[in-house]
Structures are given as structure tokens and as C-alpha cells.
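Hi support team,

I submitted a single chain yesterday and got back a structure, but I'm not sure I'm reading the C-alpha cell output correctly. Could someone confirm the output below corresponds to the sequence I sent? I've pasted both exactly as they appear in my results page.

Thanks,
R.
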Amino acid sequence: LMLDFVLDETHFENNDQISISVGLSVGLYFTERLGLITGLNYSLYTNKELYNGSETISTVSYFGVPLRVDYRIVNMDKFNLYLGAGPLVEKSPSESKFLYSALLAAGMQFNFNRLVGIYIEPQFTYSLNKPIIDSYKTNSQSIFLIAAGLRFSLQ
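Hi R., thanks for writing in. Yes, this is the structure output for that exact sequence:
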């Protein structure tokens, strides 16, 4: 049984749209290889638009709760390689409806010791519905990002 606490920061840039996301996640491993990951993410999407020669900047924030099943393909003392998939539910304080997405992740982790590691995790989300407020999420159903950070494990 392993409990992971993760604090990550993600940066995404696509032309003139920038997203910053931070989160805290908790993982519970039922076996040495199979675990359930959940948490809370906060994302801020900034959209720059040029209209009649003037630039307009709008921002939209979202709170998200992922629920992901992870499988460790390689599970060694100093190195882990894993895949994960599951739903992601997000809500903006500016919107009345929830946003639903499918989330896929693949990651690798290098462990300094039993308690602390560093990881990098490419993620892909596919939105199943569109937001009301115009943002990057409105213009693209697919979002690719790379999460990285420290991972703290309680064993």
C-alpha cells in the first residue's frame, strides 16, 4: 500500500494562448503496479485576441478533479514507468455547467530515495463537451500538456 502526494506545475503555450496549471494529487496503490490517482487541479487559461488593432486579453479559471487508474509498466527502486487513464471533471466559477474530459497519461519517475522522486508526465485530454465561455478549451477539444514535479510517497 503506497500513498503519493504530488505537487505539480504545468505550462502550455499554443500561439498566443497560455495555460498555467497547478495541482495536488493523491495516489493509492492496491498492488505494486496498480493504483488509483485523484486530486484537485487549478488551471488558468489566457486568451489574447487582436481586434481592430487593439489587443484583448481574457482569462478563465477552472478547478478540476481527475480520477485515474495507473499501471506501472516498470517498477524498480530508482525508476518507475507508468500509464494512466480515466475521467476528468472541471468547473469554472464563471460557468454553470461541468466540463467532462477523458484523460490519458504516460510518465516516468526517478526516485531519490523511498520517499522523494521527480517525475515528468505527458498528458492528453479530450473534452467531451464544450464550455460556455470562450477560451482555449472552446477552440480545441484536444489538449496536450507536460506535467513535471516532485512526488512524495508515504510507504
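A quick pointer for reading it: The longest strand covers residues 54-75. Let us know if anything else looks off.

Best,
Support desk
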